[in-house]
Amino acid sequence: MHKSFLLLILGALLGSCGTPIVDGYADKISYAVNDSISLFINADGSYDRYQLEVTDINGKKVKSLVLDMFPQILTEEKPYESGYGYKLTARIPVPDLNSGVYLFDNRIPFIIKSSKQYDVLILYSSNTENAYCEAGGKSTYSYNSSNNVPASTVSFRRPIGLPYNSTEFLQWINTQKQFSIGYICDKDLDDYNNIKNAKLLIIPGHSEYWTRLARNNFDKFIDEGNNALILSGNTMWWQVRYDKLENQMICYKQLASDPIKDTLLKTINWTDPILNYPVVNSIGLDFEHGGYGKKEDKGWDGYKIVNPLSPILKETGLKANDIIKLPTDEYDGCQLIFSSDSTKVNLLNPSNFYLYELIGYDIASRSTNSNGAWIIMQKNKQSGIIINTGSTDWCKTAGMEGEDSDVIKKITLNMIDLLLDDNSDK
After folding, report:
1. Which of 250, 245, 270 minimizes the C-alpha distance to 260?
2. Residue 380 lies in a domain
3. Dihedral sign, Cα of residue 198, residue 356, residue 394, residue 219
4. Which helix (H) or strand (E) is 424 found in, with range?
5. Is the pLDDT reported for residue 92 higher than 50?
């Protein structure tokens, strides 16, 4: 069960025991400081001059708004596709707050984008959350869609919860005040101006759904000498596109079903040769070589260290063959060659990256030689450096609050420091 559904259930329960808000959404996911926010809120009755709290990702109250609320009804035949069609509750100016992830009534998330130059930008996985969200009856998956028939088009204008695989990370990194951090969502990646001034882009959680333009801009960012830290698994698995108004995300998932004529824009797996855009070339790993970490396999539910001298592991005390416990749903992997007794592993480099090193790995379940890999790479001498942990759970409970959370947090800080230091003179 995806977390967005759980949040909707929780919202309904809270509506009867503390808040009159049943559900709601904003007209967009991210806002610039000079924007206005259109709010669409469904209340359990009519309320005049209701004080609506705005909280940060950690639940701290940062603002209070006064507005009138009323009950809403679904007006669209396919609310999962067209949006809920609620009447406008209020239009408000973007609060004068730092870039960050915020919530109205602790349930309607939104992002304030960076209004200044930040050293670090964090990507909020808005496309993935929309893909899995079943609000209105369907998601892009059969398991939580009505009649087990998934939707090929899903709306951003419906209740969508916080990221299932990165909320814990977003809460933790918000406490790390030593970094200058800005936030963007997936749609913001389609405009290179939103990332061009950052030194480091962090991609947390489960960043599965990408447009071609977003991938082009990511590659440009790296090619211009900037760095990225990928704390995500099953990254760049599906190509998507938006409607003209960017209120909907389109993902048919079947080549023959997608009516678009341009084959390079077909909404299928990025690993399909017809798209001519291998994921490994962008981030060093992909799900084609990866797999499932929690199913029965010969692994150890975490990363076995193969490069203990890496500065990434500074002050952790980790030695060769030590295990970082990290039960993972989905891993991204690479081409690994094992010795006959499986005691040694070598990382192949078919893309001829300038730098391509394995830090740790796990055995995964999906196909022959499926693995979870944690790598550091540099495409060429002039490009930026990418560190990719390849796990959907690094930023989730298993990583941020699990058995080895202290080590994982320390390593995460090490990786951020290293990538910022490498880019300090660029």
Report:
1. 250
2. yes
3. positive
4. none
5. yes
What's the burial of 17, exposed, middle or buried (CB within 10 Å: 0-12/13-18/19+)?
exposed
Q: Structural domain tally of the chain?
A: 1
- The closest alpha carbon to 319, from 332, 307, 331, belongs to 307
Q: What is the largest CA-CA distance in the chain?
A: 72
| Cβ pair 406, 186 in contact under 8 A | no
pLDDT digits (tens, 9 = 90+) for 191-239: 999 999 999 999 999 999 999 999 999 999 999 999 999 999 999 999 9
* Residues facing 359 on adjacent strands: none
Contact 108, 89 (CB under 8 A): no
Task: Give domain status of residue 350, yes or no.
Answer: yes
pLDDT at 3 exceeding the cut of 80? no
CA distance 206 to 246: 21
**5-14, 149-158, 403-412: lowest mean pLDDT where?**
5-14
In a domain, 50, yes or no: no
Dihedral sign, Cα of residue 232, residue 136, residue 28, residue 189: positive
Q: Mean pLDDT across the chain, nearest whole number?
A: 94
| Residue in this structure with the two tokens 């996985």, named with its chain if needed | 125
Q: Per-residue confidence at 425, pLDDT binned at 50, 70, 90?
A: low
* Domain coverage including residue 405: 55-60+97-422
Q: What CATH number is given to the structural domain containing 383?
A: 3.40.50.880
Question: Mean pLDDT throughout 154-173?
Answer: 98
d(CA 132, CA 124): 15
Which one, of 60, 414, 28, 423, lies nearest residue 248 by Cα?
28
Burial of 202 (0-12, 13-18, 19+ CB in 10 A): buried
Q: Is residue 8 part of a domain?
A: no
Q: How far is CA 206 from the centre of its chain?
A: 5
Least confident range of 55-59, 194-198, 342-346? 342-346
Q: What is the share, in percent, of the chain residues with pLDDT greater than 90?
A: 89
Contact criterion met (CB below 8 Å) for 415 and 336 = no
The two structure tokens encoding residue 413 = 């800080």
